[in-house]
């Protein structure tokens, strides 16, 4: 975690120092502590609300779904994991703000880039209240 503010968390790549990676992302939190699943664009990373209302992480034309959460860590698997046995995975840590790409090798093409480019930020009361400060 790069910086934690009252209603949002700024994230930076876990390899910020070692590889000088400048990838960043921002997530927002509701007053009751629940996550806000809205589109957040920072250097190619987006977190969106999936079709079943669950969060989906989009990065580099690939979709990841939240597999598990333990403590402050969230484990994301490639959305094609079940169908194509793709082993790509990402770990995010809310306490440190790290975004760790555990396995970047996909066994398929990034076929969802057009779908990702068409997405637009969702407007809702959560965004209006946090942006009025």
Overview of the structural elements:
- Residues 2-37, 48-108 form the FLYWCH-type domain.
- The protein is mostly beta strands and 133 residues long.
- The chain has one domain (3-117): N-terminal domain of TfIIb (Single Sheet), CATH 2.20.25.
- The protein has three helices and nine strands, in the order βββββββαββαα.
- The protein has helices at 81-84, 113-118, 125-131, and strands at 3-4, 8-12, 24-28, 45-49, 55-59, 62-70, 73-78, 89-93, 99-103.
- The protein has a six-stranded antiparallel beta sheet, with no helix packed on it.
- The longest helix has 7 residues, at 125-131.
- 15% of the residues are buried.
- Mean pLDDT is 68; it is low at 35-42, 113-117 and 120-133.
Summarize the structure.
This protein is mostly beta strands. The chain contains 3 helices and 9 strands; from the N terminus they run βββββββαββαα.
In round numbers, the mean pLDDT is: 68
User: What general form does the structure show?
Assistant: globular
* Total number of domains: 1
**Strands, total number:** 9
Cα radius of gyration in angstroms = 15 Å
- Name the CATH architecture: Single Sheet
Could you give the order of strands across the largest sheet?
A: 4-5-6-7-8-9
Strand percentage: 35-45%
Largest sheet: 6 strands, antiparallel
- What is the fold named in CATH at topology level? N-terminal domain of TfIIb
Number of helical stretches of at least 4 residues:
3
What is the CA–CA distance across the termini? 22 Å
GO molecular function, one term: zinc ion binding
Protein name: FLYWCH-type domain-containing protein
Domain FLYWCH-type: 2-37, 48-108
Region (Disordered): 104-133
């Amino acid at each position: 975690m790069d910086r934690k503010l009252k209603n949002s968390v700024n994230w930076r790549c876990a390899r910020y120092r070692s590889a000088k990676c400048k990838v960043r992302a921002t997530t927002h939190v509701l007053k009751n502590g629940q996550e806000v699943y809205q589109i957040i664009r920072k250097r190619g990373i987006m977190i969106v609300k999936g079709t079943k209302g669950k969060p989906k992480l989009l990065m580099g034309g690939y979709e990841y779904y939240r597999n598990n959460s333990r403590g402050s860590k969230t484990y994301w698997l490639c959305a094609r994991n079940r169908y194509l046995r793709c082993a790509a995975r990402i770990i995010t840590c809310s306490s440190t703000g790290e975004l760790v790409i555990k396995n970047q090798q996909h066994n398929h093409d990034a076929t969802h880039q057009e779908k990702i480019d068409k997405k637009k930020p969702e407007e809702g009361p959560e965004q209006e209240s946090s942006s009025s400060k």
